[in-house]
User: What shape does this take?
Amino acid sequence: MPLEDIAVSVYDPRHDSSPTPNVQALLNEIATHLEALLERGEANSIDLRGLPLMPGERDALRNALGRGEISVSVTALGEAEIYETAFPGVWWSQHRSESGDTVAELIEVCLQPAMLASHPADVGNGLERLRELTDSDSTTA
Assistant: This one.
């Protein structure tokens, strides 16, 4: 059979509204992690940069998960954008270096991403500064 007689079709997931097998598998994994969070308080994350996603699949996953009400920007050794998806407890976070390169992109299944929690040492420093502020206010009154 000559090569020109072989039927070839090109599949482009960017123009398909149904989830690809990769996206469907990720949605199932996220649902399993969400069950673990509810039942055992177990947080999990999925490193999207470590997955062999086809063109358009990251956008398809982003569209399937949607956006919720909470969105946070963090500036610390680069920029980070973290938002809760339309599914409470499922967070999309993207971290960039100071030069703007994406260094991490995660789906985090947790009550709140660890990056947003205050470190105990920082809380202690804040308490000291607040005490200094309240002590100085009481001495000037």
